[in-house]
């Protein structure tokens, strides 16, 4: 049998841990440890792997998820084998944390991360009094390990050396050291100019020193509601919020 599908371009990549498999998939070679991944993101696996649904991860986060509509269920994967992850054919990017700087990520853009990392749900500074279902809760990662994120299209990485602003749904991730807030305009609906899906009258603001990753889309990967799929025993559809804050802190 002959086909360009059998060329080296389509072969499995090498290496342990989280690796990019092409531009829209991640391959994780597991040797007995644990991995945290987005529920429903498994597209294939080989070997002896086990999948455990984590839901919203604790009563506090469960209450917050119900109030904000921003829960994205996680699954814990353990065992030995090769795992392949994807989310609606979105672009995959890898980020390595070295234990010095934290990273804040929109939960809708998290694909998988090493279990060595710590994470918590944090509200955007200055968000009190604004609608709670519009991306104002995000996930802050600290420690040492690798994270796989997804973006809708090729992102831009903005160096924050002056006041910077972004649509809440287009802002994928940013340095945890940045000061964040919300800016609004009472004269006209800024949502008609920035972002077409929410119509909100505010944008995220960033000050300090660091970076912001912005995708060319106002929707989270896969559209308004992140679906679940695959044969793993973790998909619990219907829990993803419009913007998704990653619930499941430890």
TrEMBL record:
Pfam families: AIM24. It comes from the Bacteria. This is AIM24 family protein.
């Amino acid at each position: 049998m002959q086909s360009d599908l059998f060329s080296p371009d389509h072969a499995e990549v090498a290496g342990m841990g989280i690796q990019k498999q092409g531009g829209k998939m991640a391959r994780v070679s597991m040797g007995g440890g644990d991995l945290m991944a987005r529920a429903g993101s498994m597209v294939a696996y080989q070997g002896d792997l086990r999948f455990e649904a984590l839901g919203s991860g604790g009563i506090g986060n469960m209450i917050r998820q119900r109030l904000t509509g921003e829960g994205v269920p996680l699954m814990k994967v353990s065992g030995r084998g090769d795992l392949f992850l994807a989310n609606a054919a979105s672009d995959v990017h890898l980020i390595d944390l070295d234990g010095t700087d934290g990273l804040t990520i929109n939960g809708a853009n998290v694909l998988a991360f090493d279990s060595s990392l710590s994470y918590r749900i944090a509200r955007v500074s200055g968000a009190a009094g604004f609608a709670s279902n519009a991306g104002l809760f995000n996930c802050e990662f600290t420690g040492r390990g690798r994270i796989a994120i997804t973006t809708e299209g090729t992102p831009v990485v903005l160096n924050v050396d002056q006041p910077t602003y972004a649509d809440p749904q287009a802002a994928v991730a940013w340095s945890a050291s940045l000061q964040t807030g919300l800016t609004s305009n009472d004269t006209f609906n800024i949502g008609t100019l920035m972002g077409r899906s929410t119509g909100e009258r505010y944008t995220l603001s960033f000050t300090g020193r660091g970076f912001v990753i912005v995708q060319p889309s106002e929707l989270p990967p896969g559209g308004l509601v992140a679906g679940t799929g695959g044969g793993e025993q973790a998909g619990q559809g219907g829990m993803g919020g419009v913007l998704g804050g990653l619930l499941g802190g430890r």
